[in-house]
Design a protein that fits this description.
alpha+beta; 9-stranded mixed β-sheet; 4-stranded antiparallel β-sheet
């Protein structure tokens, strides 16, 4: 974050049969960053993974905005380096706004590029990237698109990815996650982390689904009542199914004849989230208001701009009032006799 410094923990691989002392130099052209300590030495083992632990020191300027910063790491040694002596990578600098991540830029069956363009058109501060960050701490909302089970998919199979999502929800974050397998299958199969993350997401159970095209997809509370009858998604395998948590979740998307393919959660830490098994950007627009742009708008309104209602009694009339939400199409009001 702005005004802070950080070090790096990098995991690298030597594929040769030689071991040697090597020096690594970190560089960047980012004007918001100053590398205070740019070199790190380590002995590289033969044909093995190795780590650069707590390496380098990078200072972030006070006025830095949220963005992905590009770094170059260059290796040198007395022994020749046959390949990959220098490579680049990105690190997320965090200072608020909305984060949009997708596994591969502009790929089919993902929604990140669509989300980014919609948010920019709305005049919102948005950061877009394809490097999964280690933290989402400062963001007002986070949108993650893991993709379908095709060549562009990103599997949710690393502990640090799960930890970033978990910590953001525990801090009251607003999270949208889509993907055919990411939440319903990957969490349990690869990480055995479903017992922690599913309740935070408002999910009681998840199931690795089957192949299923969209025939009638209905959205439900708390954010919208739209419906869609088709998708252009090219890979429709393993569409995960869910049941909502009895306290913190409710059905958000139902595919007729198939089941619950999305859950909306609002939990005890103030977090709000939406899990969806299809790619929102691939939904086929129908007549107004049943468009993916309207659906995305409704999700963001629920995440970030929920109204606070005031109830005034003037017998025998009850008056309910609230500040209007920008772009809202309609409001739902629920009451109880108790």
């Amino acid at each position: 974050e702005p005004g802070e410094s950080f070090s790096l923990n990098l995991k690298l691989r030597n594929y040769t049969e030689f071991s040697a002392l090597a020096s690594f130099t970190l560089s960047t052209n980012d004007p918001d960053l100053q590398i205070v300590n740019s070199t790190h030495q380590v002995t590289i083992p033969q044909d093995e993974f190795f780590s650069l632990a707590d390496a380098f020191e990078v200072l972030v300027s006070e006025g830095a905005s949220s963005h992905y910063a590009s770094f170059t790491l260059t290796a040198s040694s007395l022994l020749p380096i046959h390949s990959s002596a220098a490579f680049t990578f990105n690190i997320l600098i965090q200072n608020g706004g909305i984060l949009v991540w997708e596994a591969k830029a502009g790929a089919r069956n993902q929604s990140g590029t669509f989300f980014k363009n919609q948010f920019i058109a709305q005049g919102r501060q948005v950061v877009y990237g394809n490097s999964f960050p280690a933290s989402f701490k400062s963001f007002e909302a986070v949108f993650l698109s893991f993709g379908a089970n095709d060549k562009s998919v990103q599997t949710l199979n690393e502990p640090w990815m799960y930890e970033a999502i978990r910590d953001y929800l525990l801090e009251g974050g607003k999270l949208y996650v889509e993907g055919a397998d990411a939440i319903g299958f990957d969490l349990e199969y690869y990480l055995d982390a479903h017992t922690v993350l599913w309740p935070l997401l408002g999910i009681a159970t998840g199931e690795d689904g089957a192949t299923n095209p969209i025939n009638l997809l209905s959205t439900a509370l708390p954010f919208s009542d739209l419906s869609f009858t088709a998708t252009t998604q090219s890979d429709l395998r393993y569409i995960d199914l869910f049941t909502p948590h009895p306290l913190w979740g409710q059905i958000a998307f139902t595919e007729e004849g198939y089941g619950t393919v999305g859950i909306a959660g609002a939990g005890e830490y103030g977090q709000k989230n939406l899990v969806f098994s299809y790619a929102l950007a691939e939904l086929t627009d129908a007549a107004e208001p049943n468009t993916k742009a309207n659906l995305l708008r409704d999700i963001l309104i629920w995440f970030m701009e929920s109204p606070v209602a005031e109830l005034q009694a003037s017998s025998p009339v009850l008056q309910l009032s609230w500040q209007p939400i920008p772009l809202a199409r309609s409001y739902r009001i629920y009451h109880s006799d108790q």
